[in-house]
UniProtKB/TrEMBL annotation:
InterPro entries: CbiX-like, Sirohydro_Cobaltochel/CbiX. Keywords: Lyase, Metal-binding. The keyword Mitochondrion does not apply. It comes from Aquimarina muelleri. GO terms for molecular function: lyase activity; metal ion binding. It comes from the Bacteria. This is Sirohydrochlorin cobaltochelatase.
Length: 312
């Protein structure tokens, strides 16, 4: 009997982001089709929800599912929201087992992919010594310092490995510094060129904002600001998913609990120690925002949405 793979997406208000995610799903379905039934779901905004995707696999006879988060770093989504959802779904079926894999995180494939995107961008520009270039790595930004520190680690490895004059980290939201704040500080350093690399899978609202900040800097500065493409569906990223799948199968998909604010008293986040693991996206789970629909409007119940996604 085939086992299942659930690709756990976040969801987006941007149709282009959802389309890009589904392209990744199609590629991974083809990659794993011999041994696995591959399906996908979204945490919020889009169909199908995780419940609907799991129900589809369950109706096909799948009783063992490996859930792979399509998430780069382990903030609250990977630590709380997705596990909460999966534990709840698994409780509906006594004969179903869902094993959650690890987020992509810091690994050699992601590092190599970042180098590839930077070099692709440099190949389109005039020749310039990297010592005269600043690198800015943009992470999603979370309220979890452990997740934010992973972005900083990759920044340091790219800085030292590629020989940039300076490198720093910024975030698209939640954490400090924000993208525009970081670029204003970089401007004062006087580098001839600044390359901005967003650590994002696909396009979406946040990536568009990052690109707009870079464009705005170019319109007011005598220095050069350039951004790279997102990671997309590159083969290096697919190899990272291969690795996370094998870890889920072998039971070695360990999270970093040593510096997790929920399991240790981390300086500045002592109040989060021991918090209950619970999702916080329930109010927008499975809600589709149509062009004539305002956020927060719910046109049908969640049960009807699941039935619609299942085609029943």
């Amino acid at each position: 009997m085939k086992e299942g793979i659930l690709l756990c997406g976040h969801g987006s208000r941007r149709e282009a982001a959802v389309t890009s995610f589904k392209k990744l799903v199609t590629i991974l379905q083809d990659r794993y089709k011999t041994d696995y039934e591959v399906d996908y779901g979204f945490l919020e905004f889009n169909h199908p929800t995780y419940e609907a995707a799991v129900e589809r696999m369950y109706l096909k006879g799948i009783r063992k599912i490996y859930a792979l988060p399509v998430i780069l770093f382990a903030g609250s989504h990977a630590k709380n929201d997705i596990p909460y959802e999966l534990n709840t779904i698994q409780s509906y079926h006594s004969d179903l087992t869902i094993a959650m894999g690890k987020h992509i995180g810091v690994n050699s494939f992601l590092l190599d992919l970042a180098v590839k995107r930077i070099e692709e961008t440099e190949s389109t520009l005039s020749k310039l010594d990297r010592k005269e270039t600043c690198l800015v790595v943009i992470g999603r930004g979370t309220t979890d310092p452990d997740a934010n520190s992973d972005v900083c680690k990759l920044t340091s490895m790219l800085w030292e490995g590629m020989g940039f004059g300076f490198a720093t980290t910024a975030y698209s939201g939640t954490a400090y510094p924000k993208v525009d704040e970081s670029l204003q500080m970089i401007e004062k350093l006087g580098f001839k060129r600044t390359i901005v690399i967003p650590f994002f899978f696909f396009t979406g609202i946040l990536l568009e904002r990052i690109y707009n900040h870079v464009t705005d800097m170019n319109s007011t500065s005598n220095q050069e600001y350039i951004y790279t493409a997102p990671f997309g569906t590159d083969e290096l990223l697919l190899k990272a998913f291969d690795e996370r799948l094998e870890e889920a199968k072998s039971g070695t998909a360990y999270m970093n609990c040593q510096l997790c604010k929920y399991r240790k008293q981390v300086v500045g986040f002592e109040q989060d120690y021991g918090k209950e693991q619970i999702g916080h996206h329930l109010n927008v789970k499975g809600i589709l925002f149509e062009e004539d629909e305002k956020p927060g409007e719910i046109k049908s119940s969640l049960s009807n949405k699941i039935k619609k996604a299942l085609g029943i």
